[in-house]
Each structure stands twice: as C-alpha cells, then as structure tokens.
Amino acid sequence: MASTTPVLTNAQLNRRILSVIIFTFFCYLSVGLPLAVLPGFVHNQLGYSSLMAGLIISVQYFATLVSRPQSGRLADAFGPKKVVMLGMSCCGLSGVLTMLAGLTTATPALSLALLAAGRVFLGVGESFSSTGATLWGMKIVGSTQTARVISWNGVATYLAMALGAPTGVALNALMGIHGFAALVTIMSVVGLLLASRKPAVSVAVGARIAFHRVVSKVWAYGLGLGLGTIGFGTIATFITLYFASRQWQGAAFALSLFSIGFVLMRLSFSRTITRYGGLPVSACSFALECAGLLLIWQADSAWLVDVGAFCTGAGFSLVFPALGVEAVKQVEVPNQGAALGIYSAFLDLALGLTGPLAGLLINRAGMSSIWPAAALVVLAAMLLTLCLWQKTRYSVTSSV
C-alpha cells in the first residue's frame, strides 16, 4: 500500500533539520573551544615544545579522518540516532579527560597523555556526531532535501567554530583549562539527553555493498572536495602570517569576511543545488574561489585581500553540499551513510595536508607563492567537476 508524505513548508523543513543539526553545533563548539587554548597550555604550563603543542592539536584531526568512514557505516547499520549518541559520549569523555589533564600538571607526561587521549575521543566524537546528525536530517526530511540538510550542517559547523575559539579563551582566562573542558562535558550531557528523547528513524533495508565499492563510487566527488578545500585551508592557516609578512593589520577581519561570505552564500543560494544540480553549482563555486585566491595573490593592499577572502569563502561555501548531493546519489539508501563518511574524509585529509605542504612551499618560494598554488589546485577541482558533469550529461543522453 503506497504511503503519502505530507508536503512541508520551508519553515517546517528547517525546524526538523535544525532539531538534529543542533548535535553538529554542540560537536563543533566542543572542537572550537580548545583550539586557541591548548597550544599555550602544552607549551607554557607543561613545558613542551611548540612542535608538541601542534601535534596535540593534530591528534584530533587524525582521529576524525580515521573514524569518519566507519561512522557512516555504523549509521547505516544501527541508525543515526545511536551514532550521534555515541559521538556525544565521546565528546563528553574528551571533556572529562581534559579536566583530568588540568589536575595533573605536576606530572607533565601524564597530563600530556590525558590531553592526547581526550583529543582522540574528540576526533571520534566529531566524525560520529556530525555524520550521524547529517544522515539523521536526511532521513527525517527525505532525500530530495539532502542539499538543504548538508547546507544547514555547514552553517552550524562554522558558526560553532567561530564562537568556540573566543569563548574558549574567555573561559580559560576565568577558570583555566577546566573552564572550557567543563562546558564540553555539559554540552555532551545535554546532547545525549536531547538525542535520547528524539524518535529514532528506521534503518534502510537492503544490501550493503563492500567498503571498497563505496569508495570506488564516491572517490571522484571526494577528490573534488579535497582539492577545493585547499583554498579554505590555506586562508585559515596562513592569512595571519601573510598579513604579518606584509606588515599589515587586520588579519582577523579578513578571516571574518571569509566566514561571512561562506555563511551568506550558504543561506542565500543553497537552493540552487536542487534547482540546477550539484555539479554545475560546484563548477561555478570553484571558479569564484579560484578568483578570490588570485585576488589575494595580486592584492597590494589589505582591503583587496579582504575582498579576496570574502570571494574565497563565498566560493567554497556551496562546494561541500553540492558535491555531497552527487556523492550520495551514487549509492542506494542503505549505503548513503558510508558514502557520506568517505566523502567527508577527503575534507579532513585536505585540511591535514594543507599546512605542511604549504609550509614547504613557503620555505622554497616565499609566502606569496601559496596563493597561486592554491588557486591552481582549486582550478584542478573545477576541471574535474566539469569532467564529471560532462560524463553525467553524456550518460543521461545515452540512456534516452
């Protein structure tokens, strides 16, 4: 017997999506809170080198990268609600371990080990919470709203990260490392309670294909995402050093304009993905991102760099949801969580590689060289997307 799905208004759709995307917000606020605090804690209070301080931050990214594909497969098998609750639990453990690290500073090695363990749990919590929440949103509003779900997920992510760093600094000034760690723990408990009270969605029945087959279906879209992420990673990592090298003020404002461009584009144009398709929107987005990076390269004043940062943020904004929509289309519903996890892992990998690769380029060719290099990588992403688009159009034409 066929069932009919009631037509929901935009406001109703958004409310349903936000009711689960809040777990992404909790997760990435937990990620953002320690970013500006932990390096100083490791270096100044525990007495370790700056390299070790950087490695402590990177431990989380590695844990996210490794666990991201598994989070999707678990969501397919057991449902996104259980995966979100597991993710919230891991974030809570991270907060507890960080508080313990703050209590054991008299034994620096033990404190550092507790911090590292907490970063691992936070990385796993990030991948499980965000992937589970995205898939949960897709389940409760339907596959036709995939772009809307992923877009809201991105808004929640970057809003939380933007709020997290200054909040973490403020809490650290008031209460030390225990301040932000306690907030992470409290948010995780609240997230667990909220998730436990929400009805679970049914797990899709059907054959689940092998991991390597899912990879073979989505890798090209993930590669496009990864290449496009290089522009974002370059700005996030090196814009402050670039301003300093030119003896300019206002690097923080450039980062803010990047975020403003990102959020405005997500809120204003995410519907174009459903209207025109993910691949053409991605190609246009890469073109704008590339133009922004080239503008930064050629800028002879700080305000032109600001404009370039805004254009880069606006260009990168729709890349994740646009290519993500196309990636999950490549598999049947029972494998969409795995596809989403694998696809997202390319972003984690790109962010992890951007820093060291760009750093090597700076050492060899100077600070300004990173902007045209990043633009070339984004151009490669655009060409890859155009090839995928042409291949898709040819397949549709051939099947008619």
How are the secondary structure elements laid out?
Layout: H1 10-32, H2 38-45, H3 50-78, H4 80-103, H5 108-141, H6 146-175, H7 177-197, H8 211-245, H9 251-269, H10 271-276, H11 278-298, H12 302-317, H13 319-329, H14 336-365, H15 370-399
Transmembrane segments: 20-40, 46-63, 83-103, 109-128, 149-171, 177-197, 218-244, 250-269, 276-297, 303-325, 337-358, 370-389
Family: Belongs to the major facilitator superfamily. YhhS family.
InterPro entries: MFS, MFS_dom, MFS_trans_sf, MFS_Transporters, MFS_YhhS-like
Protein described:
With 400 residues, the chain is mainly α. It has helices spanning 10-32, 38-45, 50-78, 80-103, 108-141, 146-175, 177-197, 211-245, 251-269, 271-276, 278-298, 302-317, 319-329, 336-365, 370-399. It has 2 domains: 14-197, Growth Hormone, Chain: A, CATH 1.20.1250; 211-399, MFS general substrate transporter like domains (Growth Hormone, Chain: A), CATH 1.20.1250.20. It is built from 15 helices and no strands. It is globular, with a radius of gyration of 21 Å. Keywords: Cell inner membrane, Cell membrane, Membrane, Transmembrane, Transmembrane helix, Transport. InterPro entries: MFS, MFS_dom, MFS_trans_sf, MFS_Transporters, MFS_YhhS-like. The chain crosses the membrane at residues 20-40, 46-63, 83-103, 109-128, 149-171, 177-197, 218-244, 250-269, 276-297, 303-325, 337-358, 370-389. One of its GO terms (molecular function) is transmembrane transporter activity.
